[in-house]
Records
---
Amino acid sequence: MLIVSACALIDRAGQVLLSKRPEGRAHAGLWEFPGGKAEPGEEPRTALIRELGEELGISTEESCLAPLTFEGEGELLLLLYVCRKYKGIPAPLEGQTLRWFDPGELLDQDLVPLDRPLAAAVRDLLS
């Protein structure tokens, strides 16, 4: 089973950060929640903290990651956490495009297919 941890990062204005996948990757040009694969033996929250540092240059603590929902397909399990408390300003460190969206705009975006139901859960949580 491949476990992927993703984050609905929420700013003080209540907007949610999405990342557009860069060219050359699967689902290039589609929006997704930041995050990534857990390494063998790595806990999902630990993997997400590592990925947020690598992808966005921000840091947070396990206690700041609240589990919201999950989706699965085949051997992939995608876990979504909500984070409102983090240090740093998100920056696109891996060639991706970043943008903050109002929760009501999330489902209007071209999302990676597994992220669509996650986006609905985030919208419902914040509206």
Note: Residues 2-126 form a domain with the Nucleoside Triphosphate Pyrophosphohydrolase fold (CATH 3.90.79.10).
---
Amino acid sequence: MDSSPRDTKQPQLTRRRMLALSAGSGLAALLSAGPQGALAQQPPPPGFEPAPASGDTFNVEEIVDSGHRFFGSTSRGLALAVQNVFERWGKPNGYILGQEAAGAFFGGLRYGEGRVYTRNMGERVVFWQGPSLGFDFGGAGNRTMILIYHLPNVEIMFQRFAGIDGSAYLVAGFAVSALAGRGEGTRDVVLVPIRTGVGLKLGVNIGYLKFTPQSTWNPF
């Protein structure tokens, strides 16, 4: 069954979440030009097994098509970013389309909400939030696609996913990073966000995202 979404309209970020991050976004508006090359392009961490092709996974064409409908353009940059992720991580067995806002000044916060899509495990709305620490500043409001690897069931999304060191880079104007969380057996669930949007956030940081079934202020 093809579970690619027909309607890619996502839940809107709540007004209070946007206001909470407006200071960082204001600073970002003053910094309109960002780096165009890769910040770091590291291979997947040791022990990661690329997702094999199966009836549970999504191919490049499906992800790019959903992304084009969601981001509202037929950006060549998105296709390049998705292809880059597939070359590094393989085929995902789930993905999220959503929106988020982030702001930072050496320490920051990120809030988001969207919908998980899978081939045969259903769909559901999820929320995420998390802190970051490091040498970064600025703010951003983004539409975000998150590719999911080794997802055994949708409920396992509700946990913390920590950033994988050295996995953040830029390709064709899209920011790409990777996070890992508890899976089943010896395989971690890996999330690979692909972000675009207004604002600017520079630097290298460490942090995590916590996924929850309901909206919450608490990033911890």
Note: The first strand starts at residue 94 and ends at 118.
